[in-house]
Write a structure and sequence with these properties.
The structure holds two protein chains of two kinds.
Chain A: E1 4-8, E2 18-24, E3 31-32, E4 37-42, E5 47-51, E6 56-61, E7 68-70, E8 74-79, H1 126-129, H2 138-151, H3 181-190, H4 208-216, H5 240-255, E9 258-266, H6 268-279, H7 290-304, E10 311-313, E11 318-320, E12 327-333, E13 336-338, E14 341-342, H8 350-365, E15 379-382, E16 402-406, E17 410-416, E18 419-433, H9 439-454
Parallel strand pairs in A: 12-15, 15-16
Antiparallel strand pairs in A: 1-8, 2-4, 2-7, 3-6, 4-5, 6-8, 9-18, 10-11, 12-13, 12-14, 16-18, 17-18
Chain B: H1 25-36, H2 64-89, H3 103-112, E1 118-120, H4 126-131, H5 137-144, H6 153-156, H7 167-181, E2 193-198, H8 205-216, E3 221-227, E4 230-231, E5 234-235, H9 247-251, E6 255-259, H10 263-278, E7 284-289, H11 308-315, H12 319-329, H13 335-357, H14 377-391
Parallel strand pairs in B: 1-2, 2-3, 3-7, 6-7
Antiparallel strand pairs in B: 4-5
The chains are: A alpha+beta, B alpha/beta.
């Protein structure tokens, strides 16, 4: 019976955390021997060849050339007993039980399916490294458990799951206060932040006296004006939402040729309609925002220009037109930008849209938007107006072909029937993927949205 | 050995200034030539082609059995080296320091030592360790970070590996001075010490100090420098204006350059040097002219700083192949012998893999043990505090 073993990517050079797969020298079905070179990887230090730890038959390659793999993540599955008599052992599922206090013995499997590479080297399993103290409160333990899966997440990671708020960390390798170890100890004991001190010793070394005087001084008297920049900078690890956002934006900006068009609209009639509806019984208790009108307008206009609701599928060499609208709403949250979707927004009435948008915003601000909620959008609105901003050039959500920025609605002088009047003015900016959407369709769509906002009655004609 | 008249003065512009960022093409070629040729003073008894040659000052009587033994040593230690290198690549060792290419230098020097002689290694001396009767598995803990080397340095007459470059030269000089003070030097029953370091270490102050002290105290110390041409990425010609063995002259003791890929020459020269030392004529510097065929360590990428031409040239001077050719030509070994050595090597490799993957984590108190020979109340207090702290964690010690 087959016995499957998985070979985790080792740290080949003292403290590396990841490596890129360059070339596989074996393929599934190949018979391999101990120490046979199976793969070439490139680390930050060198390109190295990895020997096979076991003899057997290659079952599966778990990483592709060009893929960057974290140290400790399995890269190949080998059947070490093909056709043997031993009882079958299933390959370790990558997302195994999350809890456990495995110490990370070499070769031993740990929570999350990772196999420990080496004590003292490479990333550690969170559970093993951050053991809770026996008397620690349960909350701390729960927090530790929550961190664990994120630390061992497999490479093609979906959107991050409930990443903890990144704690500010001191600059690694940057400005470090100069102080002798006993002085550091004293500062630690007295609760004095060495980063906030200016050393009076030679070459700015922080002395025992410096720490003592700071320790006895009133807390709110740090010598801020002389402090090095390093102490006024805060370094936050790029991870979670920030990392996902950055990756998505860079991917999008470098794959989809963006075109952005702008339109300034007199939305006074829309605002008047909004005022009327607010008093209507049907809309009682509903938070009817300009965004809801804008969403409705986008959905209606997309019906006439389906290109903006389509996807460029480079792999299949096809453009995918969609008969549904999953409307993404870019939301600013404490965790960063998230884009939750209103599913099948095209089937919703204005009221249903308004309710859905309100719920979406609440969930997002509470940081409870699930990764599933952020997947598979078809078109996006970003409401920069809530920040009092007039307009911007939005970047497409990857996989989508259009994004509309809704600017702030302001009282502005506007020419109406040859006279200057004060009207509610708003700017719209539409970015679209020029591979899918031509200037004509893009302009048509933007003009339609503008017209619907400028005169909601136009919707009657759709 | 060499007189000042024989000194080879470096030709102007032959070597790049140490401050030069990049050598010129001419300098690279000059450097290649310099590493290719050991020079006229190179002691060689077995050519890369496996031809036995003579030398006016050094020769050796070797039996078929002895030479087969040297061959076996070299093949086995090469296998140990390759296996450990592979273990590092499998994530089983934090780092490994390959000796590939330096087998003859180490086996020749190691087999020249008597049991009573003392050795001070750096960190690449796996072959020396082998000749001191240390099981190669005992080296693995050092590179896995579980121990500092488990052999008894007094019993094995082999000091623990020294990671700090050149530091062991001071230790060795002091030890050899002690041998002299203890009256263990003076006749054929005398003791000697051998100190191992590389070409890079010769740029260290410690090595200079060791030379000075050993010289003025006539210490019975053989300085065994394995010049493998590269101090990590720094070639020898950027570290010295004259061949390294000639430096000995300045300190007032003999310096000899031997073909470090020739196990017979290395054995002959080292035996002679150790005998000189045990009779009271030390110290002596031996420069074993060899080549590091692999990276400095597993964390290093030599393709970034040296040309593959150089490697190809040194492949032709393989220390093991020449012995094999000679054994066959002399009909001192048959097919069966070579097969049995291969089988032994395979078995040793398997032992190493087995041992390494099953190596237990050391207990937490291990870092406190063996610091002082007779204990120390301060350290014991620290130990107790630390063990108390560790046991406070859920799951206990691991």
């Amino acid at each position: 019976m087959p016995q499957y073993k998985q070979f985790p990517l080792p740290d080949t050079a003292e403290g590396l955390t990841e490596a890129e797969i360059l070339t596989w020298h074996v393929k599934p079905g190949d018979t391999v021997t101990v120490n046979q070179i199976i793969v070439e990887i490139e680390t930050a230090k060198a390109a190295v060849e990895l020997p096979c730890p076991w003899a057997g038959v290659v079952t599966e390659l778990l990483a592709e050339p060009g893929q960057t793999v974290e140290v400790g993540v399995p890269i190949i599955t080998i059947d070490t007993d093909p056709g043997g008599a031993a009882a079958p052992v299933a390959p370790a599922p990558v997302a195994a039980e999350a809890n456990g206090t495995s110490s990370g013995k070499i070769g031993e499997e740990m929570p999350g399916g990772r196999i420990a590479t080496l004590v003292g080297y490479g990333p550690k399993s969170g559970a093993a490294k951050r053991r809770a103290r026996k008397d620690a409160p349960a909350v701390a333990k729960a927090a530790v458990a929550a961190i664990t899966p994120a630390a061992v997440v497999a490479p093609p990671a979906p959107a991050p799951v409930a990443a903890p708020a990144p704690a500010p960390v001191q600059a690694p390798g940057g400005y470090v206060p100069l102080a002798k170890p006993p002085v550091r100890k004293l500062a630690k004991d007295l609760g004095v932040d060495l980063y906030a001190l200016t050393g009076s010793g030679p070459d700015g070394v922080i002395t025992r006296e410096d720490v003592e005087s700071a320790g006895s001084a009133p807390a709110a008297a740090p010598v801020q004006s002389f402090v090095d920049n390093g102490s006024r900078e805060r370094r936050v690890p790029i991870k979670g939402v920030r990392k996902a956002t950055a990756q998505a934006m860079v991917d999008s900006a470098f794959t989809a040729p963006h075109v952005t068009e702008f339109l300034t609209v007199d939305v006074t009639p829309m605002m008047e309609l909004r005022a009327k509806l607010k008093n209507a019984r049907e809309f009682h208790g509903v938070k009817l925002t300009p965004l809801a009108f804008c969403a409705k307008a986008v959905i209606l206009a997309a019906r006439r220009t389906p290109d903006v609701n389509a996807t460029w599928d480079a792999a299949a060499n096809e453009i995918v037109y969609k008969d549904y609208v999953h409307l993404g709403i870019a939301a600013a949250t404490p965790r960063g930008l998230v884009v939750p979707k209103v599913r099948d927004a095209d089937r919703m009435s204005l009221k249903e849209l308004a309710v859905a948008l309100d719920e979406l915003a609440t969930v997002a601000r509470d940081g409870k938007t699930s990764p599933a909620d952020m997947m598979n959008g078809t078109i996006t609105i970003t409401n920069v107006g809530v920040f009092g901003v007039d307009t911007g050039t939005p970047i497409l959500n990857p996989g989508e072909s259009a994004i509309l920025a809704l600017g702030a609605i302001r009282d502005m002088p506007w020419v109406v029937d040859g006279e200057i009047k004060i009207r509610k003015i708003c700017q719209l900016a539409l970015s679209f993927d020029h591979r899918v959407v031509d200037g004509q369709q893009g302009s048509q769509f933007l003009a339609d949205v503008g017209a619907l906002l400028a005169e909601p009655g136009i919707a009657m004609t759709y | 050995m060499s007189s000042p008249e024989q000194w080879t003065h470096p030709e102007p512009d032959a070597a790049p200034a140490a401050t030069a960022a990049k050598p010129t093409a001419e300098q690279v070629i000059a450097g290649l030539r310099a590493t290719d040729e050991g020079g006229a003073d190179l002691v060689q008894l077995l050519t890369p082609e496996g031809e036995r040659v003579t030398h006016p000052d050094f020769d050796i009587d070797i039996t078929a059995e002895e030479l087969r033994g040297l061959y076996r040593d070299m093949v086995l230690i090469r296998r140990v080296d390759r296996e450990a290198n592979a273990l590092q690549r499998k994530g089983q060792l934090g780092i490994w320091v390959p000796l590939l290419g330096q087998e003859a230098a180490q086996i020749g020097a190691g087999r020249a030592m008597r049991e009573t002689d003392m050795a001070f290694p750096s960190y690449r001396e796996h072959g020396i360790a082998w000749t001191r009767g240390i099981n190669p598995t005992e080296l693995l803990g050092i590179f896995r970070g579980t121990d500092q080397g488990t052999w008894d340095p007094v019993e094995k007459r082999f000091h623990p590996y020294t990671i700090v470059i050149g530091n062991q030269v001071l230790n060795a000089a002091g030890y050899a001075m002690g041998q002299k003070f203890d009256g263990k030097v003076g006749d054929d029953e005398g003791e000697a010490t051998m100190c191992f370091f590389g070409d890079g270490a010769t740029s260290q102050g410690d090595v200079h100090e060791g030379f000075v002290w050993a010289a003025v105290y006539d210490a019975p110390l053989v300085f065994f420098c394995q010049n493998n041409q590269w101090a990590i990425s720094e070639p020898t010609e950027r570290q010295s204006r004259l061949p390294l063995y000639q430096r000995a002259r300045g300190y007032g003791f003999p310096g000899i350059r031997v073909d470090g890929n020739d196990v017979l020459a290395t054995l002959a020269v080292t035996k002679w040097a150790l005998d000189e030392c045990r009779h009271g004529n030390g110290p002596i510097l031996i420069e074993a002219f060899t080549y590091r065929m692999d990276a400095h360590t597993t964390s290093d990428d030599p393709t970034r700083y040296r040309l593959s031409d150089e490697l190809e040239m040194w492949k032709l001077k393989d220390p093991i192949e020449r012995v094999k050719v000679y054994l066959v030509r002399q009909q001192w070994a048959d097919h069966e012998f070579f097969e049995s050595v291969e089988a032994d090597a395979d078995k040793l490799g398997e032992e190493l893999r087995e041992f390494c993957t099953n190596m237990p984590d050391p207990p937490a108190e291990r870092i406190f043990s063996n610091v002082y020979a007779e204990g120390n109340p301060n350290l014991e207090a620290q130990r107790d505090e630390f063990l108390g702290y560790v046991s406070g964690f859920a799951g206990g010690e691991h």
